[in-house]
Design a protein that fits this description.
mainly alpha, TerB-like, 62% helix, 0% strand, globular, TerB family tellurite resistance protein
Length: 131
């Protein structure tokens, strides 16, 4: 399941036709913390076109973590493009959230992965957007 989730992040990073260095670093950090090798992640980054699988099998905790990482990745390079927002809203919908959750979370999630937000509080806010 980790590769499928990382695939979504890679597609988001590539949605503006360029994977920024900060985006690639965050993808590597997330992938390696979930047991993937650097080579596995590099290979995935070279081929970002894999279709997004079914995200309904994730637990509520996994869905939130996935949503958190998607929003963080969208912001990590300091530029947020409309295509990235649309992509994030699509992923939120696939995860069972209303699109508005992206706006709610993006105002509270920092672009710097070393600055952590109160995840429990954010998760409570996100739960209001579950369908």
């Amino acid at each position: 399941m980790v590769k499928e989730q990382l695939n979504v992040l890679i597609q988001l990073a590539a949605s503006d036709n360029q994977v920024a260095e900060k985006e690639a670093k965050l993808i590597h950090m997330i992938g390696q913390s979930n047991g993937l090798t650097k080579d596995d992640i590099d290979e995935m980054l070279k081929n970002p076109g894999h279709p997004i699988g079914n995200l309904n099998t994730l637990t509520d905790d996994q869905k939130f973590e996935h949503l958190y990482h998607v929003v963080q990745l969208m912001k990590v390079d300091g530029q947020v493009f409309k295509s990235e927002i649309v992509f994030c809203e699509d992923i939120a919908t696939r995860l069972g959230y209303k699109k508005g959750v992206i706006g709610e979370l993006s105002s509270k999630i920092f672009s710097d992965p070393s600055i952590t937000s109160d995840r429990d509080r954010l998760k409570q806010r996100a739960q209001r957007y579950l369908r």
